User: Which sequence fits this backbone?
């Protein structure tokens, strides 16, 4: 088996990295090209490639030179992507965005054989899909890595860029834990190996021939590779693919809370040592959180003794636990650490699992113009509406906005401007440097730490 040797900082006397030919010879037969007929046009931002064939153009002649079939321009438009077999009986992994809008999926293996594939299931949240082909022959397949790659490890993507199947590139792991887009389950591996349109759904291998990730997205102002690509980690692929195989869809654990990040100022106001964890800003009615006794203002810092870094970390952890499982949440409440048990429910299909991140400011003072919510049309009956914020006032840089509805200060409900003033004065009397303000903005509730002078 071939291996790669990392170059030393002192280059004197160091050997060049070993070649990857033996690894590629073993794993490339398991990588396939994916060709999907679409009724509509694909997005220009997708990593798959919709080929703009113009009869007689240089692009047309280039692809004919390489023996790639040219589709009839009157036929449904095509999306080209990549995939790979994970079992000898024909199960293969690709991206959801490659196959989601397709009416027919065609698979081309490394030896040129063509198969029609049936879609088993998709998971838009992680952009993964599982398909299957029928064949009497045992197919070559690859394994998903059991260990996470380290930053700096060699990686080898193989795929179908621009329809050029079986293309191999090489690079290293540039970073881990990248969040790309709005979904809370994003936890991408960033690599610098050249990845282009058409590589979507293809595998990225380590030097042991194991799949460490699935190519899903590229950052590219020009549309081509600039050395910033993102892979779905193998640990995520394992969890999702097994559920797709067993039941055709993915179920996720759910506790029913809206969370926000802990800033240093919030940490100081809440009395916690480190600015990490997930602050509970809102709780769904009749949710596991309600039944388990979780409260607004609680800070979740662990799940079954596993540390929670931030709201996305909590969302990914809970989502990876089967509904019906009882978990122990470590929380910080009223200056004390507690542990409560919550039995997870299944994430409702209609719930759009997005994290709302607040960006509270960290300067001092108030200077708010306020009005009772009941006196402002459409504001409801509870709370106090912020109608104006003085640019020279104490709250100018707090993160509060005109139109916010202040629901409580320091855990106490407020319904008049006078009550807000009293809470601020009480905080100053007790030598506090900031107050914890809970507000409603649209349909979202958030906490803000507002320093006071």
Assistant:
């Amino acid at each position: 088996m071939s291996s790669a040797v990392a170059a030393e900082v002192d280059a004197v006397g160091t050997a060049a990295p070993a070649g990857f030919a033996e690894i590629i010879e073993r794993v490339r037969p398991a990588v396939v090209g994916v060709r999907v007929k679409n009724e509509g046009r694909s997005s220009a931002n997708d990593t798959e490639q919709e080929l703009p064939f113009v009869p007689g153009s240089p692009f047309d002649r280039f692809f004919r030179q390489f023996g790639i079939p040219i589709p009839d321009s009157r036929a449904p438009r095509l999306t080209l992507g990549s995939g790979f077999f994970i079992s000898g009986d024909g199960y293969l992994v690709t991206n959801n965005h490659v196959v989601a809008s397709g009416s027919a999926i065609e698979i081309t293996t490394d030896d040129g054989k063509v198969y029609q594939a049936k879609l088993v299931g998709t998971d838009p949240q992680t952009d993964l899909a599982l398909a299957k082909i029928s064949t009497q022959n045992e197919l070559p397949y690859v394994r998903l890595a059991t260990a996470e790659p380290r930053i700096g490890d060699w990686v080898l993507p193989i795929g179908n860029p621009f329809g050029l199947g079986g293309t191999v590139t090489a690079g290293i792991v540039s970073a881990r834990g990248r969040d790309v887009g709005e979904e809370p389950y994003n936890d991408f591996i960033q690599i610098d190996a050249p990845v282009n349109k058409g590589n979507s759904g293809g595998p990225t291998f380590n030097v042991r021939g194991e799949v460490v990730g699935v190519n899903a997205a590229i950052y590219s102002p020009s549309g081509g590779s600039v050395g910033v690509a993102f892979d779905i980690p193998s640990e995520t692929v394992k969890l999702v693919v097994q559920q797709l195989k067993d039941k055709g869809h993915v179920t996720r654990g759910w506790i029913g809370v809206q969370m926000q990040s802990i800033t240093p100022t919030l940490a100081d106001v809440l009395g916690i040592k480190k600015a990490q964890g997930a602050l509970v800003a809102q709780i769904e009615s009749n949710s596991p959180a309600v039944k388990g006794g979780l409260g607004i203002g609680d800070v979740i810092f662990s799940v079954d003794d596993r540390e929670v870094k931030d709201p996305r970390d909590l969302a990914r952890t809970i989502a990876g636990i089967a509904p019906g499982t009882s978990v122990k949440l470590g929380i910080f409440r009223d200056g004390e650490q507690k542990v409560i048990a919550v039995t997870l429910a299944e994430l409702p299909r209609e719930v759009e699992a997005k994290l709302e991140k607040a960006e509270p400011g960290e300067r001092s003072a108030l200077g708010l113009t306020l009005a009772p919510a009941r006196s402002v049309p459409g504001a409801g009956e509870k709370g106090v509406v912020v109608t104006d914020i003085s640019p020279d006032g104490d709250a100018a840089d707090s993160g509060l906005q005109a139109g916010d509805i202040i629901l409580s200060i320091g855990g106490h409900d407020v319904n008049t401007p006078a009550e807000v003033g009293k809470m601020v004065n009480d905080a100053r009397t007790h030598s506090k440097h900031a107050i914890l303000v809970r507000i409603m903005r649209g349909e979202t509730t958030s906490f803000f730490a507002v320093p006071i002078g």
